Amino acid sequence: MPTAWPLVDREDELRLVAAALNSHGGAVLTGPAGVGKSRLAHAAVQRRQGLVRWIAATVTGQSIPLGALAGYTAQCGPDPLRRVQDVIQALVAGEPSVLICVDDAHLLDDQSALVIERFVEQAMGTVVMTVRDGEPVPDSVATLCARLPRIAVPPLTTEGVSALVTQVLGAAVESSSAQRFFSYTRGNALYLRQLVTDEIAAGRLTRRAGVWVWDGPPRLSASLVDLLEASAGNQPDAIIELLDVLAVSDPIELPVLLRFVDSTVIDDARDRVLITVDGGQVRLAHPLFGEVRRNRAGTARLRGVRSQVAELIGQLCAPSAVQTVRRAVLLMDSDTQGDAVFLVEAANAALQLLDLDLAVRLAEGAVAAGGGRAAQAALATMLAFAGQGGAADAMFAELADGGDAAERASIALLRAANLSWVLARPGNAETVLNAARDAADSCGLGPSYDALHASCRSALGHPREAVDMATAALSAQNVDPLAAMFGYWALVCGLGDLGHVDRMADAAAAGYELATTAPQASHLRFGLGLMEIVGLHRAGTQERISDIANRLRQQSLDVVASRSFTAVILGYAELCCGRLESAQRWLRESLATGSVFDAQSGVIRELAGMWLTMTLAMCGDLAGARATDAERFRYFGDYSHIWRTDMLLTQAWLEAVHGSQSRAISFAIGAARTARTQGRPAHELWCLQTATQFGATETVERLGQLAAVVQGPRAGVAHEHASALRRADGARLLSASNGYAVIGDTVAALDAAAQAVPHLHGERQRRAIAAAHRLAAGGARTPAYRAMASTGVLTPRQREVIAIAATGLSNREIADRLVMSVRTVEGHLFRACQRLGVNTRDELISLLADGTAS
Question: Structure pTM?
């Protein structure tokens, strides 16, 4: 990590400083401590020519006449009336252009301030001063500041924090980690620097999957505490009382705070830039101030404060899920004994707010408070929602045999949902549902069981059966909301597999609506969204894909446990649209954040690794694709049925980037065959299209049949693509490229355009080449695109042999891979050298890699 941090997100301020220096001869930079005023002043000074004098005012020098300018008083004459002028002459030193920069000008003594004022009056040069907000400014300095334009230096924005930390660490920072850095530091550059340094040293800020991820809350180092106490320490007792209240509840309602301190204390704290007051709520100016007080105040004192705050919230604030959770959290860490019933209510409220880890903690508190089976069932449920499927299943198993039929049926429903969704074992979930079926029917839970069972059928690769079962179940009355959400997932997944995207959109809309009204089903919206995106992509109706992914991302910003899931959704959406660089970023984020969770994250992590491998292969990054593929766990559980075609296509792209066109086609055709066996025509369509992108022409007839089955424009475009490729029709290949571009499938559009090049001539060929280059702007470097370099010169087999040779394989290894003799490999290479006018194997590889063969 560099010792000198760069300046980012300050171009606007630098322009304002430059304009002030040119127009007014100086500028005053104002802002809170640590915001970066001095760093900005240094940067502004570096852009100027001439002599620069840097003056640092200090507390100790403030009581000494000319204390800040002591280094320039040695040559002063005996006449005290000329001392100010003598110091000015020493500062100027006969130079025609002088800039004086005064850091912490509010600490200048009166005579030093007078020197700077006379310097400005006499137009001897220019001045930049920094003044800290919230500090008293002596009259002499205030008079000086009034002569110059004031430029406020705000804290860094969220984007600025992310850009700064990324630049310092040399790699991207996971987006929610960057957001948390901003939340803790409020964009204060000084606090940010110390916090990043401390968290790296503590091992909580680490690089995973090429992305920096910050795990857990900070533990303040002595260095950071010293920095914070320079702002928040040594305060009057009344302000310490106020800070302690905010340390246990930030923000807090103004009426609650006024029960602890009077309004004058609040005004004083605001003037000292310790708090902000907005809309009837009071917040700490920096969350880290609360960390300092929690470290400094006694445990017993803060437990008492929590009890008081919790009681006052109950008395003075309107009831809501947020207030219930706040009171429960305060009471759990207070000197008041917890109430199990209230803690279960609070756990459910935390679930409603999608704070899953807190829901688990509150349910654990309910169990510890003697809540019995009700608290245990709540805890098992919260563990499942938080992704701790193994622990949840163990608790559900213990509860399975107790209670009446209705309770046993409810427990079985929850256990089956956990087995299917979290532990990726829908087959086991079916066993649990079947065993409790009689109990479910006896208490009216039959349709709920069917809805959940439908999702298991879909996960196990039976889309038509799943759609029929879910449709019947969801037409019943009083279906459990959690089970209903699984039913909608089954519909979206199954209808997407079958290519019925019109009905799929209606099912997805109903599921999203349910997610907003049923807390226990809310978190399932992410799985629903992913399957809707998959279905839309397969059909070629991609215009809504990015909107769905971004909406889910916005809805989950405060949900730590969903970070990996929403990142993989965004990454896949970008992959579908051919924005490969952006896809890499999000898929790496998913891999980095997913590694801290267990159970359900195994499937999410595998999806991220699989799609990142595919993305890197599409980008022509053989080494990156190989490395990512080698790190995959290949864990899908029973969900391998629905992701089998993606797994095979990933292998196809690996073969393609390796140069093995024939093997890539074989894998893609095999994936299509698997999809057809499963009764998933939309996936079969995509696999056959991919094979066509690799150069297969045997896909024409089946694509024509699928065009009559799968809704959406992809089937027609893919059929046109395959037909044109078989007929070597360049014009129709360009038409197919345009069709893919309209759909939003940029990579397929690129391949069709590249494949058109050898079948066109003159201006039409040049237009096709230009179109391919334009479509490759998103980072794609597919085999078809790379093959354009040898258009009209080499045969497809010669290009394949050269592409494999470029990966470092020997002629013998190439022969084994392509099932041909070594002599045949040598013949292909020899004839290619003849055609391209080169003499060696390495020259041949280099020529094609540079794209200069023509």
Answer: 0.81
